[in-house]
Design goal:
CATH topology of one domain in chain C: Rossmann fold
Number of helices of chain C: 11
Distance between the termini of chain A: 51 Å
CATH architecture of one domain in chain C: 3-Layer(aba) Sandwich
Strand content of chain A: 15-25%
CATH class of one domain in chain C: Alpha Beta
Strand order of the largest sheet of chain C: 6-7-8-3-9-10
CATH superfamily of one domain in chain C: P-loop containing nucleotide triphosphate hydrolases
Helix content of chain C: 25-40%
Helix content of chain A: 40-55%
CATH superfamily of the largest domain in chain A: P-loop containing nucleotide triphosphate hydrolases
Radius of gyration of chain A: 21 Å
Structural class of chain A: alpha/beta
CATH topology of the largest domain in chain A: Rossmann fold
Number of helices of chain A: 12
Largest interface: A-C, 39 and 41 residues
Largest sheet of chain C: 6 strands, mixed
Oligomer: heterotrimer
Largest sheet of chain A: 6 strands, mixed
Order of helices and strands of chain A: EEEHHEEHEHHHEHEHEEHHHH
Chains: A alpha/beta (about 290), B mainly alpha (about 270), C alpha/beta (about 280)
Order of helices and strands of chain C: EEEHEEHEHHHEHEHEEHHHH
Number of strands of chain C: 10
Number of domains of chain A: 2
Strand order of the largest sheet of chain A: 6-7-8-3-9-10
Structural class of chain C: alpha/beta
């Protein structure tokens, strides 16, 4: 089974850059995987996504070394039209990534551009709206929607091109808490129920560790750590040195166990409050706190 | 620009094909040029307003016409000034004045011509609010591109501008608020001052707009924009109503040309 | 002494009819550090915009430093209430940081030596002295935000209103920003920051005012507000993870926990106690 994304020895420097924005990146994403990418500002996260969807080198030029392949196609030698039906991208700003006045126009925009026959466009439109649970918004004007709804429209607009992987560049940073939940829920469902691979750049560590199969941490253009969420979280000190935080329950539980001289094994690292509860309970009862 | 936004109402005019409506605009153009008698031109104008009534957009149409009326007035005054003919009815400045006495004569011919041209201008532009409020921009685009062979890029530019105007306006409002919070205030009459005062609002919006336009272009390309053979989700059909309308329009032109040739509808200038 | 900020039965109806504020009553003393929280559309930003006159009350009164805002022009209110917008790019238009920070004082028609002094002081306060002659567009987003804060500080307002200091920001920049705001509060400014970033609120704010659908739902210290679990739930603003964890064992953590450090300190207290009273390990 070919990896949906395969990157080998990728090094890239922007034309006007003084040093490489990405250095010797090697990573792969399997079909249906949920990958979270995080790191401080300027680490190269957006640059990395741009190398996958073809923005680099087709829109922004520079010095590109190494190979980037999506579904076996070399990004550097494929056109946007070839890539559009494999990888779709959703950006941070809910407003300036959509061109149409109403939702159905926007979702139909992609397939229309690809010359898909009319009946097929209608089918894709309905399906895309259903997958993000916004069928009721079909005839609405985009300007009347909330941030979370707008981002789900943007996701549908990409879904209608039937991609195998969706890239998202910090789609929730401008949204309020309700909007963030809406978007992450939609992404989780797309991934688990429909097998679409998701690669999402975000600073929201809590949601990333909850949903990802793989987390990649970028720092100064390199991959600092990558692996399953528990593995990544267990390396707190490395993350801290790069200014990256882990979820509060992770920070707390690992600090607690370490200070008591009983470091937790990787597979026990808690990712959510629910997972942390019994671990705390164990410490409290072992030390006979209040006589449990 | 609010009166030019599509209104989602169910009316006969809404259901007509965009081309029928554009054809109607051409017919109004012809009628406005054929007739010069103010009475006939008023008739044409009333017919447009009636179409607006049938289209349930009478309010928008009248608001627009009231706004444009001022421009019609300018046309009116210009004609009086530059097309004098026939006996002088009066002068704007009384003859008795020592300086500038007897200036700006208003002639009978000039007056009639002025009214006629003013009305003609109103007729010509009156079709815009009716069409824009009863036709979705994407349908206009489709009609232009598929039937009139206008290149897609140009038609698309028009609808994209419509879509982003409210967004840009809201950014300008935010910028204005942010600068006012720094004691920015436009005061006084000095035009140089006023130009300088423009920078705090203009600069940020220009930077923002350029950056966002770039991002938008990128998003469009990522979704395959630029294909010459693009398809369209919606289909527009010519219905019975459309064909009836076309027949009526053709008849209107024919009849108008005929009675005009008989000497009606024209005024001696 | 009159409170620094006071709203009495404040209503605001937008021209399109939307009733954004439905009778707000609130009183904030000089030197407080308040977080104004709520979902988008709850009225939090609408409320703060009344403080410097960007919006006018359709009913009710807003007093700042003892006098009513009334119809006083924004340019006058700007001397007392500084409002720092969320996106610094909505403000930045000069080609040097110096000019940008000087813009406010210039508008206030201060003397050149006074302007110079204030710019230097403001840049020092935000830590951008070295960038005095840089072009703001060459700076990072976090730095541009600090330029925006300096540009507001140079007008010497007693009240600072900061709109969403951490939204759309890198985590580290967000923390730096809040540390800066905290420092400014220590220096004597009354600070209001509008946000929906609950972990930051838990960490930095002393008082929370919770807006929902045009009303103030809760108003109190951070501890008090978080303890109102059921009410807070209706706003869909969730306290940070650590608070939830502590609640699961509230027999051990009777007081709401707001940060990891608090939790660790309290847990070690508990454990030490046990080992003193003969617990194992």
């Amino acid at each position: 089974m070919t990896n949906i994304i395969q990157i080998q020895d990728l090094t890239f420097q922007y034309r006007r850059g003084t040093s490489p924005a990405l250095k010797e990146i090697n990573l792969c994403v399997a079909p249906g995987e949920f990958v979270g990418i995080t790191g401080p500002a300027g680490a190269g996260k957006t640059t990395l996504l741009s190398c996958i969807d073809g923005i680099i080198p087709h829109y922004y030029g520079g010095d590109l070394k190494g190979t980037v392949e999506v579904a076996g196609l070399k990004v550097a030698s494929s056109t946007f039209r070839d890539l559009a039906s494999i990888v779709g991208t959703v950006f941070e700003d809910p407003d300036f990534q959509m061109v149409s006045i109403s939702v159905d126009e926007e979702v139909a925009f992609g397939p229309e551009n690809l010359g898909v026959p009319r009946e097929e466009i209608e089918k894709r439109l309905t399906t895309a709206l259903k997958k993000t649970r916004i069928e009721s918004l079909r005839d609405r004007a985009i300007s009347t929607l909330s941030g979370g709804q707008k981002q789900r429209v943007a996701i549908s607009a990409v879904l209608s091109m039937l991609p195998q992987v969706i890239l998202l560049d910090d789609p929730t940073s401008e949204l309020d808490p309700i909007g963030k939940v809406e978007v992450f829920t939609a992404l989780r469902e797309l991934n688990r129920d429909f097998g679409i691979a998701i690669v999402i750049v975000s600073q929201d560590m809590e949601r990333l560790v909850e949903n990802s199969d793989q987390i990649i941490v970028l720092y100064e253009g390199r991959i600092l750590i990558h692996g399953a969420p528990r593995q990544v979280c267990s390396k707190r000190s490395v993350l801290a040195s790069a200014g990256i935080r882990v979820p509060e329950v992770v920070e707390f539980t690992l600090s607690l166990y370490e200070t008591l001289g009983k470091p937790l094994p990787v597979e026990s690292v808690p990712l959510t409050v629910e997972e942390a509860v019994p671990l705390l309970g164990k410490i409290l009862s072992e030390n006979n706190a209040g006589g449990i | 620009m609010n009166v030019m936004d599509y209104t989602n109402r169910n009316s006969l005019i809404h259901r007509l094909h965009p081309l029928t409506k554009m054809g109607w605009a051409v017919v109004i153009l012809i009628l406005s040029m054929v007739f010069t008698d103010p009475l006939y031109l008023v008739g044409v104008l009333i017919s447009v307003v009636l179409v607006g009534l049938v289209g349930k957009v009478i309010k928008e149409t009248l608001v627009y016409l009231t706004a444009i009326f001022f421009i019609g007035l300018i046309v009116f005054v210009l004609q009086i000034a530059f097309r004098p003919s026939g006996p002088v009815l009066f002068t704007v400045t009384p003859e008795s004045w020592r300086a500038f006495g007897g200036w700006f004569p208003v002639t009978e011919g000039g007056l009639r011509y002025g009214i006629s041209m003013g009305l003609r201008m109103l007729c010509l532009v009156s079709v815009f609010p009716v069409i824009l409020t009863t036709t979705q921009p994407r349908d206009i685009v489709m009609a232009l591109v598929e039937k009139l062979y206008v290149p897609y890029e140009y038609a698309f530019m028009f609808t994209t501008a419509l879509r982003f105007m409210p967004v840009i306006m809201s950014e300008v409002t935010t910028i204005s608020e942010a600068q006012r919070s720094r004691a920015y205030a436009v005061e006084g009459w000095n035009p140089i001052r006023k130009m300088q005062a423009f920078a705090p609002i203009a600069m940020p919006i220009v930077f923002i707009a350029i950056g966002k336009a770039d991002r938008l272009g990128l998003c469009m390309e990522l979704r395959g924009y630029g294909n010459k053979n693009r398809t369209y989700l919606r289909q527009l059909h010519m219905t019975v109503a459309d064909w009836v309308a076309v027949i009526l329009l053709v008849a209107a032109v024919a009849i108008s040309l005929w009675i005009s040739s008989l000497g009606y509808g024209k005024i001696v200038l | 002494m009159a409170p620094m900020i006071q709203a009495i039965n404040l209503h605001h109806r937008y021209p399109n009819g939307f009733h954004a504020l439905r009778g707000i009553n609130v009183s904030i003393e000089a030197g407080e550090f308040v977080a104004i929280i709520g979902q988008n559309g709850s009225g939090k930003t609408t409320f703060v915009k009344h403080l410097n006159g960007l919006l006018r009350a359709t009913e009710g009164v807003v007093n700042v430093n003892g006098t009513s805002v009334g119809k006083r022009p924004v340019s006058e209110m700007a001397r007392i209430v500084g409002y720092c917008f969320q996106n610094p790019d909505h403000q930045i238009f000069c080609d040097t940081v110096y000019k940008e920070v000087a813009y406010g004082p210039v508008n206030l028609k201060l003397s050149p030596p006074e302007i110079e002094a204030r710019v230097v002081e403001a840049l020092e306060a935000v830590g951008l002295t070295d960038y005095k002659n840089s072009n703001p567009h060459d700076l990072s987003k976090g730095q541009r935000q600090r330029v925006a804060v300096a540009a507001v500080l140079s007008m010497h307002p007693s009240v600072l209103c900061i709109d969403e200091p951490t939204t759309g920001q890198d985590y580290k920049d967000g923390v730096d920003m809040l540390n800066l705001i905290d420092k400014l509060n220590q220096a004597g400014h009354t600070v209001l920051f509008i946000t929906h970033d609950m972990p930051m609120v838990a960490r930095f704010a002393k008082r929370l005012i919770v807006f929902q659908e045009g009303n103030i739902l809760l108003d109190g210290t951070t501890y008090e507000v978080f303890e109102n679990v059921e009410v807070l739930k209706t706003t869909f603003l969730s306290p940070p993870q650590i608070t939830h964890l502590a609640r699961e064992y509230n027999q051990f953590y009777p007081r709401t926990v707001l940060s990891v450090k608090e939790m660790l300190d309290q847990t070690f207290e508990l454990l030490k106690l046990k080992s003193l009273t003969g617990g194992i390990q």
